[in-house]
Write a structure and sequence with these properties.
Blueprint: H1 2-14, E1 23-28, E2 36-41, H2 43-51, E3 56-61, E4 66-70, H3 71-80, E5 85-92, H4 97-103, E6 108-117, E7 120-123, E8 132-135, E9 151-154, E10 159-162
Parallel strand pairs: 1-3
Antiparallel strand pairs: 2-5, 3-4, 4-8, 5-6, 6-7, 9-10
Helix pairs in contact: 2-3
């Protein structure tokens, strides 16, 4: 992360574009398609991102999921924990018949945000209004229109349609 921040700052300085801060992207290369991915953001890397005032931080996995954080989200994560942050995405299935009817054969993912506290993982469930953007590659079927795609949140009791303002494909 420190090297990526330095490269972003050097590039901004070279192009005279330092006024608005820097965005940092860390690529994570995966050599094959996976059903799950786990990314650990070390506590010291989170501290550095906040200290260096990185406006946007992206973890770009080339075949699974991208995670995007604004500076406000990074600060909130840093405020809530002094441990490492773990992002998990795992391909899964749903058991609810109602959800299965809505989802059909489209992919389903279990997404978790955890902190490591005393060598134990604990879910982070409240970012106090801050958000993490998550991009999952999806190729629409022939009968699907990208502007009509929606995310669906499924829990043990029900499911909810989440209308997305933008879907990047």
């Amino acid at each position: 992360v420190s090297d990526a921040i330095k490269a972003a700052k050097d590039d901004a300085k070279k192009h005279g574009n330092q006024k608005n801060g820097v965005a940092v992207e860390v690529p994570v290369e995966i050599d094959k398609k996976l059903d799950s991915v786990q990314i650990t953001l070390k506590a010291d890397a989170l501290d550095t991102l906040v200290k260096e005032n990185v406006k946007r931080f992206t973890i770009d996995t080339d075949r699974m999921t991208d995670f995007g954080f604004t500076l406000d989200t990074l600060k909130e994560l840093n405020r809530q924990t002094s441990g490492d942050i773990i992002l998990k995405v795992k391909k899964t299935t749903v058991s609810s018949i109602e959800a299965k009817v809505t989802i059909g054969n489209r992919p389903v993912y279990d997404i978790s945000l955890l902190e490591v506290k005393n060598v134990k993982e604990a879910k982070l469930t409240n970012l106090n209004g801050r958000t993490i953007s998550i991009a999952i590659p999806y190729t629409p079927a022939k009968n699907e229109q990208p502007g009509n795609l929606h995310a669906v949140y499924v829990d043990a009791v029900s499911y909810t349609h989440l209308t997305l303002p933008t879907i990047l494909l």
